[in-house]
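=== Structure Prediction Worksheet ===
Name of assembly: unnamed complex
Input type: mixed (protein and possibly other molecules)
Chain count: three
Listed entries:
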Amino acid sequence: MSAPAARKTWLERLNHIDRRLIFVIVFVVVSIPMLLKLTSPVKVSHEVQIAYDFIQSIPAGGVVMFSVDYDPTSAPELQPMILAILHHCFSRNLRVILTGQLAVGMPLGIEALESTAAQFGKKYGVDYVNIGYRPGNQAVIVAMGRRLRDMFATDYRGTPLDQLPMMKNIRNYDQIAGVVDLAHGGTPELWIQFGQARYGVKLIVCTTAVGAPDYYNYLQAKQIVGLLGGMRGAAEYETLVKAPGLGLLAMPAQSWVHLAIIGLILLGNLTFFLNRRAKNAENA
Amino acid sequence: MKQRIPIAISFITGIIIIVAFYFPNGPLGDIEQRTLVWFAVVAGISMVVGVESLLRVNLMKVARRRPGWGFSLILLASCILTLVTATIGQIKYGSPFHVDSPFMYVFSYMVVPLQATMFAVLAFFIASAAYRAFRARNLAATLLLLSAVLVMLGRVPIGETIWKGFPQISDWIMNVPQIGAKRGIMIGAYLGAAATSIRIILGIERSYIS
Amino acid sequence: MAANLANTIGVWMAVFFTLAILSFLYKDNPFYKLAEYVYVGLSAGYWLIYVMFFDVKPMIVDKFLQEQGFERYIIIFPAFLGALMLCRMIPRIAYVSRVAIAFTMGISAGLGVTGAIHGMILPQVKATMLPLNDINNVIMLVGVISTVVYFYFSREHKGAFGVAAKVGIIFVMISFGAAFGYTVMARISLLIGRAYFLFHDWLGII
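=== Predicted Assembly ===
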């Protein structure tokens, strides 16, 4: 009699586990690998490799446009990506235009651009320009394809684009080798519809892990030239450019939390089946 | 009149954009370009409407000393803080968005931690949901669960350490069946979006002017 | 020196807001509520600044001051449409904002038609038309067709159509499972971001 009673107790405990206990487990499992500074190399996936290869194929002096379409809610995933790709661009002496389709994210892009430019000794107006944000998403993307200056007559500080040496010969996407869209929402689909399909823009999509599955079909359809998904994507790009950042630092913690969550799923299912068996036994 | 004029405007602008797509150069392209720039102007200004409503509600709450008015006061003060720091940034650095501007300081040390932590909290809830709700109740749920676990193991370095096959299975799921389903959903969604757009242009869909 | 002090104060403010939001995990409390209201207030202010400095100033004010002749005065038209949009805030004349809304809806719809057909549906259908000499191509094709069938509700899911819909649900579930797997990584990433801030920027232990 005592054995089933004990089993029931355990089952009850599992049924009524305090969710705060789960919260503590998650925080501990995230923290320990970070505090121990564990490292784990990542294997570069095809979708990140082709993004890297595309940037690598642009001749020195070529222009890459960065569209900052994320905000602090997804910065831990996308900020390491923009830092790694900017690092790659500046190390290859490519020139950078910063813009954005999501106003709230612009400061994050500005911080990343200014810090990386300073690291490589790049000069504003010569090696990089920040043209700022305009509302209107798809309308902005289409209008930039015809005449960039109709939408952005000046940079973010109000300096006319023609007064910035780098911008003198840039009229539309024809003078831009590729666009790196860093987004946490559906903006890459707008860039695909109105930038790639209409003007043939070469597009690298950098997105959160939540958004990444939505873009594999565009990769397969060759509508985009590369895809970085979530922190793993950032870690892979950091590996390629040999500039470890938050992406690589976070991989061990990601590994262990993933195992912990798989453990919770298994435990949850074990509880479910034990409950079902107990119920069936009761009914019988 | 209150309905006919807006419907006529939607029709004309919609048709201009569609025809200009096929004849992008020349006068029609220029008209399209102009309307796109105007669209950007109006889209930006429309954001003010939402902000005004939020500020008005909180201002009323403070003025009438309704319960929780202290928090509303904090909300208004925070809003004013951004306006003041932006003005200082504009005067001192030529733009609030200059990297040294106090507006950027408020962004880095207030907006970022607030917004980022609000979403970071979801990490705890997804773990809790994984334990409580992710059950293999039937074939469909089992498939969902298996796919999730395999992809999770394939995406983290430890998965490959456990078994080299996990990343390969994960890649296959992402590049074959996952694409099939996503593309099916996407084609359906965009067919619906195109149909809705045509209904708006033709004036059949009028909910936006109600 | 002053910059260092400002950064230190900034980090401590960020720590306070981080912990105030995290305190919600224990239970709702005034610190969380305070942080919530600060966040909403800051966001409202930010939107006003974005509209001012990325829209009204460069697109209306600066252009009006810099352009000449026709190009100068035509700017009054979008400004007028914007003013009509703002009439939504005044209930008595809110109906005039319909003109501005109709203008934006017409453009969105026009772009929506061409974008969906030319940019999405046609290239995606084309990318599905692959030679069927590879099992993966066959699986993908079956996945696309059966998923479309599953989400087609204008016809009852019976007979061959019903079988196709049942196959569709298999693909949909695999896809949603994969999405869940990715979502776990996304959510954990955000927590890692905050943990990194606390351990690195604040405590300086990593």
